[in-house]
């Protein structure tokens, strides 16, 4: 009979537990009834006396339930345990805390914790870890004072969980205090504590401290390498991220999907296409599958590095695409000004039943704005309520931009006044930018006044207002704005452009003569200028916002940073190779016109990434359709 019970226990354990029991008076217990399925359960056998209740049996039940994460079963086991003679068993109660945390029911875990007659380090650590794992980092850190007050000494597992929570909060002060305690208790040399400490400093943006902790680790593992790589990636330090990734390989640690995701994210930030392709090849060689987790960041990397063809290939190859995959591709279309493609992609999302969210609608509105699709943009803005998506301030900014780019400045102004949310500096800034585009000084001044009031430290609006007055020939007003800028210390950000050739980045500013090959670069631009003028290029001096004569204006146009970068690329890149140029501010309108001619005359694909979007020049035209 005992052998029969043992076999029956193993056979019935995975089945749904059928009964709930009244709680013991001294513990806060669940009382909700659980529907009984057909057949016996392990708890039925215990009640029938066919199985002897033992701590080992209860622990087996708890362990199996933790694997299935079935909250109803967890509460049934808890209720049954409370009626047994093991109701106060610290080991089993600690296991229950862990079980509830696994099921995501941290409040139930806290109920068990609070009702315990005595708590040990495992009790405290289990709850700390539970809070940290269930996105409640502040609650996890908040347990530490009580633990110390109870004179319970934290161990390595406790510190690892506390540091993880402090990092999730971005609370450097709390993290440093936990670090000091770990040193006091001699736990800082533990590899898990060390990795958590490194991750905490990295998440708080303290990469110098993170690197120092990493260097002191006697036993580095994949977790510590990944934490360091992710930290550099979050800081936008693409080159350092790549160097650390290479160091990880040299030290014999295999990259995981977390590693590749961090590296692709970092390379996306600097638009490093060649390095991105190298990491992609490394991933294929390692046998890593194209999961959505990695594919999403790889797709973003290719899109932000100026290769929409590769971005689309990655999208098509991602297995089990999730919402992020679809949104990332949609955002890429928006950044390239491919409005019609973005709309088609958005409609495909709807057709496939993808759950649309705020980011989806923001991306499609941005695409409509950049593509001049006003009718479609209005339609999608109104559609948000059909999907129970409440417009946020970014959606209003994008909608104002949509109307403003189309020249509907009065309609945009009325929209701002009728907004249910209070207009922010970003909303007025979008209107101001549109006024600069369409040279409307009246509404521009009105929008600028609101921006100055809401965000007096923003250097962009005064520059835009100056440009509006200068472009319309109102030099007295322009001088007034310039005087205000000087009085308040506002300085225009210097324009610079850079191009990467053979893994070396070459950066240029306007009228740059510091490059070793400056003379050759300038001779090349003179040749380019001569050839594109013959093809029909005429310099547009409206983009020189200085009170000087026409000849001086034309001279000023010739040596903008992006033109110098283009000349350098044509000298050094093989015939037919795509030229990719990055710029820290918006591309100049005259340079945009010149690049169209260069793409036709020199038969080159040229991709420019500025702060707003991508411009893909080919055969005399741009992907933006001159709507920017």
Compute the CA-based radius of gyration: 31 Å
State the strand order across the main sheet.
2-1-3-4-5-6
User: Any idea what the shape is?
Assistant: elongated
Q: Helix/strand/pairing class, anyone?
A: mainly alpha
Strand segment count? 6
Largest sheet, if any?
A: 6 strands, mixed
Distance between the termini: 82 Å
Average of per-residue pLDDT values: 87
Features:
about 625 residues, mainly alpha, six-stranded mixed beta sheet, about 65% helix, elongated, DYW_dom, mitochondrion
Can you describe this structure?
Keywords: Mitochondrion, Repeat, Transit peptide. The protein is mainly alpha-helical and 628 residues long. The protein has helices spanning 2-12, 42-47, 55-68, 71-83, 90-102, 106-115, 121-133, 137-142, 144-149, 156-169, 172-184, 191-203, 207-216, 222-234, 238-250, 257-270, 273-286, 292-304, 308-317, 323-335, 339-351, 358-371, 374-383, 393-405, 409-418, 425-438, 441-454, 460-471, 475-488, 518-534, 550-558, 561-572, 589-601, and strands at residues 496-501, 504-509, 579-583, 606-609, 614-618, 621-622. Helix 10 (156-169) runs parallel beside helix 12. It is elongated.
